[in-house]
Each structure stands twice: as structure tokens, then as C-alpha cells.
Design goal:
Shape: elongated
CATH class: Mainly Beta
Number of domains: 1
Largest sheet: 5 strands, mixed
Number of strands: 11
CATH architecture: 3 Solenoid
Mean pLDDT: 86
Structural class: alpha/beta
Oligomer: single chain
Number of helices: 3
Helix content: 10-25%
CATH superfamily: Hexapeptide repeat proteins
Low-confidence stretches: none
Order of helices and strands: EEEHEEEEEEEEHH
Distance between the termini: 34 Å
């Protein structure tokens, strides 16, 4: 599922596995265009476009948070979570949680699962927690204000 409405340039250079959830604002950057600027310097150099273009591969069971940027020539492994706002400039190994600029290891995937498994909430949501009801929102605001 991709909630963003952006279509990346060169989508044929992007591979997305199974059970991948991509939040809004995620950018898949398969190239840069610095060569245009460099070629405009009026030097004798001829900077080529194809030197800075590459593939992006997303494995299975991956969540990519809002406004993440993933650069070309990056492989994201299986069982990975990428924190919102991160910039991924190098490969992300299997079974990891990464975040930051540039993205770095935060935790293992198994540690994340265990923390979520132990998270206890009693919010009044419907459809197994898929939608936030008015009652749930009111309760969340109360908890937020009383922290």
C-alpha cells in the first residue's frame, strides 16, 4: 500500500516486496540531476547523467514511515522498519529498525515486535483498532494532556 500520490521517476528501477506499507510523503530517488548544474559551469568537462542513477529494492515485511527519502543503489532488507523523516543512503540489513539522517540502526526487528507486543492500550477504537472513533480520540487527548 502506498498512501502517497507521488509517482517516482523511473519506477522500473524500484522493486517492492510483499507486505510493504509505505506512508505518505515517501520519496524514492533513483537519480540525481547535478550533472545539469555541473555542465552549466562552462568548463570542458562533460558530466554524464547515467553516472548517478540506480535501483532501489525493498524487501518483504517492511514499513516505511512518512517523509522518508530512499536514495538510489539502496537495498532495504526483509523485516525492516524505517522511522519517519529518515534519509536512507545505504543498505538496510534484514531484521532491523532504522531512523535518522542518515538512517542508522535503532533496534532489531525482534525487539520492536516485543515492545509492541507488551504495549497495552484500552483505546475505544473499532474494527480491531483500524479506525479511531470519537471516543478513542477523546481518550487519547485526555491521556496526552495529563502526561
Amino acid at each position: 500500500m502506498i498512501t502517497s500520490r507521488k509517482i517516482p521517476l523511473y519506477p522500473n528501477l524500484i522493486s517492492i516486496g510483499n507486505n510493504v506499507w509505505i506512508a505518505s510523503g515517501v520519496s524514492f530517488i533513483t537519480h540525481d540531476v547535478a550533472h545539469f548544474m555541473l555542465n552549466g559551469l562552462n568548463t570542458e568537462d562533460d558530466f554524464k547523467y547515467m553516472e548517478k542513477i540506480g535501483c532501489i529494492e525493498i524487501g518483504d515485511n517492511v514499513f516505511i514511515g512518512s517523509n522518508v527519502q530512499i536514495l538510489y543503489n539502496v537495498k532495504v532488507g526483509n523485516n525492516v522498519i524505517i522511522a519517519a523523516g529518515s534519509c536512507v543512503i545505504k543498505d538496510v540489513p534484514d531484521n532491523s529498525v532504522v531512523g535518522g539522517i542518515p538512517a542508522k540502526m535503532i533496534a532489531s526487528f525482534d525487539d520492536f515486535i516485543e515492545k509492541r507486543r507488551n504495549l497495552k492500550t484500552n483505546y475505544k477504537a473499532n474494527n480491531a483498532g483500524q479506525y479511531v472513533t470519537k471516543e478513542c480520540a477523546d481518550e487519547m487527548w485526555d491521556l496526552f494532556r495529563n502526561k
